[in-house]
Write a structure and sequence with these properties.
- It is extended, with a radius of gyration of 20 Å.
- It has one domain: Fumarate reductase/succinate dehydrogenase, transmembrane subunit (3 helical TM bundles of succinate and fumarate reductases).
- The chain starts with 19 loop residues before the first helix and ends with a helix.
- Helix 1 runs antiparallel to helix 2, helix 1 packs across helix 3 and helix 3 packs antiparallel against helix 4.
- It is mainly α.
Length: 129
């Protein structure tokens, strides 16, 4: 193999654009990691709640701050996205929806439904208060 060649042996990320299904695959895994970390933070919040009003108040203050709200918004989207994309994977597990056109349509649908559900959840949550 000629190692002195200035040409790449495979496409670089700067010139190669990943297909939407590949981007969703990576994002699905990342959202799963994010949800696992969020589960640990949920345990932290429950421990604070069990610790009494003083410990819960500090946690509530953090969650109501702009950074806490941004985290919760991201968590809501990650939950819905992971769910919607997981449904796609369930269909693939039974051998359905592997056509390129169907893969692209369901990828876009998963993103749109995740956004719509996230917005709906926050609209309802903000109107409850």
């Amino acid at each position: 193999m000629n190692t002195s060649s200035p040409h790449p042996t495979s496409p670089h990320l700067q010139i190669y654009r990943l297909p939407l299904s590949a981007l969703l695959s990576v994002t699905h895994r990342a959202s799963g990691v994010f949800l696992a970390i969020a589960a640990l933070l949920l345990i932290w919040a429950l421990v604070a709640l069990a610790g009494g009003p003083e410990s819960w108040e500090s946690t509530r203050t953090l969650l109501q701050s702009w950074i806490g709200q941004l985290f919760l918004l991201g968590l809501t989207f990650a939950l819905y996205f992971h769910f919607c994309n997981g449904i796609r994977h369930l269909f693939w597990d039974v051998g359905k929806g592997f056509e390129v056109e169907t893969v692209d349509k369901t990828a876009k649908l998963a993103i749109v439904v995740s956004i719509v559900l996230t917005i709906a959840t926050w609209v309802v949550a903000l109107n409850v208060e």
